[in-house]
Specification:
125 residues; 71% helix; mainly alpha
C-alpha cells in the first residue's frame, strides 16, 4: 500500500484550491522583487531628473521636478509590495490562510516605504 507524501497544513504547497496556492506563490514572488524594484526605482528617479535637465551636481531641485521623478520612482518601488498585498488577500479569499503572511508583509512594506519617502520630501524642503 503506497502512502501519500507528507504535506504540511499551511504554506504555498498546502492542500487546497490550485488558485489559492498559485496566489500565495505570486505573493511571495512579489515580495522577492522588492530589492530589484529598489534598484530600478533609484535608476528611474535619477533618469527622470536627468531628462528634466537636472544632473547629480545640482544642489537643489525645484519641487515640481522632484515630485514628478520621485512620484514615479515611488510607484516603481511600492509596486511589488502592493502586488504581494493583493495576491495574499486573494489567496485568503480563495481559502488559503498562508496568504496572510505575504499580505501583511506587503502592506507594511508599502506603507513604510510611502511614509519614508513623504517624510524625506518634507524634511528636505
Amino acid at each position: 500500500m503506497a502512502h501519500a507524501p507528507f504535506r504540511s497544513s499551511s504554506g504555498p504547497f498546502a492542500p487546497g484550491p490550485a488558485e489559492a496556492r498559485r496566489e500565495v506563490r505570486r505573493a511571495w514572488l512579489s515580495l522577492g522583487m522588492l530589492l530589484p524594484a529598489f534598484v530600478l526605482a533609484v535608476l528611474t528617479g535619477d533618469w527622470l531628473l536627468h531628462l528634466q535637465g537636472y544632473d547629480d551636481s545640482a544642489k537643489t531641485v525645484p519641487l515640481t521636478p522632484t515630485l514628478i521623478a520621485g512620484g514615479l520612482a515611488l510607484l516603481v518601488l511600492i509596486a511589488p509590495a502592493a502586488a504581494a498585498l493583493y495576491y495574499g488577500l486573494r489567496a485568503l479569499r480563495h481559502g488559503n490562510p498562508a496568504g496572510l503572511a505575504p499580505a501583511v508583509s506587503g502592506g507594511i512594506a508599502a506603507g513604510v516605504l510611502l511614509l519614508l519617502n513623504v517624510v524625506a520630501l518634507v524634511v528636505d524642503r
